[in-house]
Write a structure and sequence with these properties.
This protein is of the alpha/beta class and about 600 residues long. Helix content is about 35%, strand content about 20%. The longest helix has 24 residues, at about 225-250. The structure holds adenosine monophosphate. InterPro entries: GH3 (IPR004993), GH3_C (IPR055378), GH3_M (IPR055377).
Length: about 600
């Protein structure tokens, strides 16, 4: 029976979970109607909804005709009232008592979003479902998981409401922790490491605890792939210290936070044999290829969100993972969950997310590309949009923007993500994540998205392959300080290389933006030659630390692929770290 497991997560078997998923998705249209009814009945007299005169109606037609689509700025004044301590029914009948801070990496300003018990249940349902499918292919049995999870600080708003990142809200919830016990293997690290105030120390201790339990680890994971790459890059630098700690049974003095020291010291015992084993494995690796299966021989896969803005990290992650499969984790946001990965055997580049029709009410705004993007890989877009359609009305092969109605008080909320319908599982669609909808690079008639930038960087980075170096991370901005303006692409590289190579990269980047608006403007010189700026090593770490200072968490960090001029702090960090700069000559000088 659909929903049977909802409140009994810990007791559901994988088979029951899969059966529940099949039943829900076979009847996705009806489940959506019921879900909308539940949300509207529960919140009919919340102030945000009551304004639209639904007068008890809970059908999709009335809902869509009366309640307008909205974006974050439309709901912000209501959420601010919640933050200021208004405990009346502002957006939901039951007052919202916790807020999530979403990353807001592009604007450089985190946004508040409502968080409640229903979001926890939805998250558990999505995790339980994808785990059931994963477990069917790669049975992990009893064992541990090496999880690079980090929580951010909790703040109390002036109205006394707890606010922190959504992942922290989840980890801190007893209900979530209880529910997760039945879903995933236990992590290696004690809570004090996950909740530690200094992410460098937490990361070091995650690695250390993972090595202590090396023989028991069944999979390695993080929320986003970025944290996985960051973890193994750190391992390359600190492996000898880790070996020394294990050999002596004494935690490095670098770890100074008392709570972390105490908790880790409890599980760290002198183990020279293990230290030798780790040492020998590490020295035999060639450029750290396959370090994950070498040090965690019983691990069956590597897990984390690997699509969208995480795709650029796949190459490096594959290198560390060796023969182990990479499995992309589910698709969700601080606003609510969207879909889960039910086919773990599919490589991340082709992964799709099946929507669970009882986790919210989903609509999709059809988007049509009007120009540019001739090449299959590019998402160059001037989108023309039409009226939103329901979950079961989407068409395979078409692209849409996702609209959410959640149990936590967001009604017809434009999530800003663009997805493509890859197919259906029973009657629920399977979404392929394309990109964030917001434009990144635009000076005049040109329009390029995160995906276009990613494509250009991939094209240009092919020139680095022969040089045996890689792009650690990248971002961009438009420089309009002179007329005409130009695109600026920032690269941090794993090591230095010849000027000729980087000059060719600047040309390759310039030519790889296939948007007609850009090409035309470059040809008629209304956009100046693209500039490639090379950064000092460690620049992106500095940007990460800056975001953590704003209340972000490593677990939810996404490198901003475009830096707004308003985000002066990040631009400052980038520009003070520029070591070389190359201008494209691709369209002549
Ligand atoms: P936040 O709420 O700050 O954690 O960010 C949520 C956003 O992360 C979503 O709106 C997506 O743009 C992105 N995201 C989350 N999950 C995925 C996924 N599986 N694939 C690609 N992008 C994702």
């Amino acid at each position: 029976m659909p929903g049977l497991c909802q409140f009994e997560v810990t007791t559901c078997s994988s088979e029951e979970t899969i059966n529940e998923f099949e039943a829900l998705t076979r009847d996705a249209g009806r489940v959506q109607q019921d879900t909308l009814k539940k949300i509207l009945e529960a919140n009919a007299d919340a102030e945000y909804l009551a304004r639209f005169g639904l007068d008890g109606r809970t059908d999709a037609e009335s809902y869509k005709s009366r309640v307008p689509l909205c974006v974050h700025s439309d709901v912000e004044p209501f959420i601010q009232r919640v933050a200021h301590g208004d405990s009346s029914s502002v957006i939901t009948r039951k007052p919202i008592t916790a807020l999530s801070l979403s990353s807001g990496t592009t604007q450089g300003k985190p946004k508040f979003l409502p968080f409640n018990e229903e979001l926890i249940e939805n998250t558990l349902q999505v995790f339980r479902t994808s785990y059931a499918f994963r477990n069917r292919e790669y049975t992990t049995g009893k064992g541990k998981a090496l999880q690079f999870f980090y929580c951010s600080k909790q703040i109390s708003t002036d109205g006394g409401v707890i606010a922190t990142t959504a992942t922290t809200n989840l980890y801190r919830s007893p209900r979530y922790r209880e529910g997760m016990k039945g879903i995933r293997s236990q992590g290696c690290s004690p809570d004090e490491v996950i909740f530690g105030p200094d992410f460098h120390q937490s990361l070091y201790c995650h690695l250390l605890c993972g090595l202590i339990y090396s023989d028991e680890v069944r999979f390695v994971s993080s929320t986003f792939a970025h944290s996985l790459v960051q973890a193994f890059q750190t391992l390359e630098d600190v492996w000898e210290d880790l070996c020394a700690d294990i050999r002596e049974g004494v935690l490095s003095e670098k770890v100074t936070v008392p709570s972390i020291r105490q908790a880790v010291s409890r599980i760290l015992k002198p183990n020279p044999q293990l230290a030798d084993w780790i040492y020998n494995k590490c020295v035999r690796l060639s450029c750290w290829y396959g370090v994950i299966p070498a040090l965690w021989p019983k691990a069956k896969y590597v897990y984390g969100i690997m699509t969208g803005s995480m795709e650029p990290y796949l190459k490096k992650l594959r290198h560390y993972a060796g023969h182990l499969p990479l499995i992309s984790a589910d698709y969700g946001a601080s606003e609510g969950y969207v879909g889960c990965n039910i086919d773990p055997t599919v490589p991340p580049e082709q992964v799709t997310y099946a929507v669970l029709p009882n986790t919210g009410y989903y609509e999709f705004i059809p988007l049509e590309k009007s120009t540019g993007g001739e090449m299959e890989n590019s998402a160059s877009i001037h989108y023309i949009e039409s009226g939103p359609v329901g979950l079961t009305e989407v068409e395979v092969g078409k692209i849409y923007e996702v609209v959410l109605t959640t149990f936590a008080g967001l009604y017809r909320y434009r999530l800003g993500d663009v997805v493509k319908i890859a197919g259906f599982h029973n009657s629920t669609p399977q979404l392929q994540f394309i990109c964030r909808r917001s434009l990144v690079l635009s000076i005049n008639v040109d329009k390029n998205t995160e995906k276009d930038l990613q494509f250009a960087v991939e094209e240009a980075s092919k020139l680095l392959e022969g040089e045996k170096l890689g792009i650690v991370d990248f971002t961009s901005c438009v420089d309009t300080s002179s007329d005409p303006g130009r695109y600026v692409i920032y690269w941090e590289l794993s090591s230095g290389t010849r000027d000729e190579v980087l000059s060719s990269c600047a040309n390759a980047l310039d030519l790889a933006f296939v948007d007609e608006g850009y090409n035309g403007s470059r040809k008629n010189k209304t956009i100046a030659p693209l500039e490639l700026r090379i950064l000092n090593k460690g620049t992106f770490k500095e940007i990460l630390v800056h975001f953590l200072g704003l209340g972000g968490s490593v677990s939810q960090f996404k490198t901003p692929r475009f830096v707004n001029p308003s985000n002066s702090k990040v631009l400052q960090i980038l520009n003070k770290n520029v070591t070389q700069s190359y201008f494209s000559t691709a369209y002549g000088l």
